[in-house]
Amino acid sequence: MTAPVFLVESLAGVRAGGTLTLDGPEGRHAVSVRRLRTGEEVVLTDGHGTGAHGTVAAVEGKDRLTVAVTELRTEDPPRPTITVVQALPKGDRGELAVETMTETGVDAIVPWPAARCVTQWKGERAAKALGKWRATAREAGKQSRRLTFPEVADPLTTKQVAALLADADFAAVLHEEGSTPLATAELPAEGRIVLVVGPEGGVSPEELTTFAEAGAKPYRLGKTVLRTSTAGTAATALLLGRTGRWS
């Protein structure tokens, strides 16, 4: 089994042969929940592509341990990057979408309150829901042993999503009536891929027009219709395979 991953604020100044202290909530999880002991392997990451690999040198109390760093590893930036614009699902299915997309390998997630979304983020609820999405991405990043965690952006309006699509190297709207399969689309080897996943009620005709004007064409995944909470994960997996990132 690969070594468990824990998040630290910074790895600045950390070198192989040195030590690093893990405390606070992450230290408590490592000591009291995972029950790590001296000599066990562990990875500490900043979530931005760097990981300090080492072994537990000492455990103090219930929430603090010292790691003897044996190696620093840095992930190469992904090529191309994959951003999913995710319409807001109902209930906790938003966290499910974020979790599985993170585990699969998405690079960025953009919440989108589409016109047909039953759920709408407003006021304190918006801040709380966004916080849950970001916490889910962090936990799923650790669980899947990633060194680079996906960014969960602030929610964007349809107009702002259109601007994001216009700036992409490949832009697509997942739509069950799309005539072209995503599996046959011509993809860039570099740059940024942006996918839009609509709500359960579908992307509205007005939104489709706005996105088309920004250069995003409708594509379908397959013969079945996926829920909004699973479509982004399936599309990400397809693209990771087709771009060679899973090779």
Automatic annotation (TrEMBL):
SUPFAM superfamilies: alpha/beta knot (SSF75217), PUA domain-like (SSF88697). It is an enzyme of class 2 (transferase). One of its GO terms (molecular function) is rRNA (uridine-N3-)-methyltransferase activity. Residues 80-239 form the Ribosomal RNA small subunit methyltransferase E methyltransferase domain. Keywords: Cytoplasm, Methyltransferase, rRNA processing, S-adenosyl-L-methionine, Transferase. It holds the Pfam family PUA_4. The keyword Cell division does not apply. Its EC number is 2.1.1.193. It catalyses: uridine(1498) in 16S rRNA + S-adenosyl-L-methionine = N(3)-methyluridine(1498) in 16S rRNA + S-adenosyl-L-homocysteine + H(+). PANTHER family: 16S RRNA (URACIL(1498)-N(3))-METHYLTRANSFERASE, RIBOSOMAL RNA SMALL SUBUNIT METHYLTRANSFERASE E. NCBIfam families: PRK11713.2-3 (NF008693), RsmE family RNA methyltransferase (TIGR00046). This is Ribosomal RNA small subunit methyltransferase E. The lineage of its organism: Bacteria, Bacillati, Actinomycetota, Actinomycetes, Kitasatosporales. The gene is rsmE.
